[in-house]
Design goal:
The chain is of the alpha+beta class. It is built from 2 helices and 4 strands, in the order βαββαβ.
Length: about 100
């Protein structure tokens, strides 16, 4: 089992728009592709780190790396382009891939 994690640094002024997009568009769109399930959103707690805004981890489960690669080929560029158009540099993100260890 693989977890596709994206961490977002969201400026305070964009939080409302980002969170609405996340709940109403992004999560439903990701699930609709058929590649992912079990979405989870968590606020990243940082101690003694000065930053503008807050960080959030958004995670989806997928069966294997091949499924993630197939999603990336089919949807990755569309997602990145749409995301950049909506948020510009007000919301930054990076993704990581985690493997669940039995």
């Amino acid at each position: 089992m693989i977890i596709f994690n994206t961490t977002y640094l969201v400026s305070d002024k964009m939080y409302g728009k980002w969170f609405k997009w996340l709940r109403e568009e992004h999560i439903p769109d990701m699930l609709a592709t058929g590649f992912f399930d079990r979405p989870r959103v968590a606020k990243v707690l940082t101690a003694d780190v000065e930053q503008e805004g807050s960080s959030y981890s958004v995670q989806f489960h997928t069966e294997d790396v091949a499924s993630l690669e197939a999603w990336n080929r089919e949807y990755g560029e569309v997602f990145a382009s749409r995301f950049a158009g909506l948020f510009g540099d007000e919301v930054l993100c990076f993704s990581s891939v985690l493997e669940i260890v039995p």
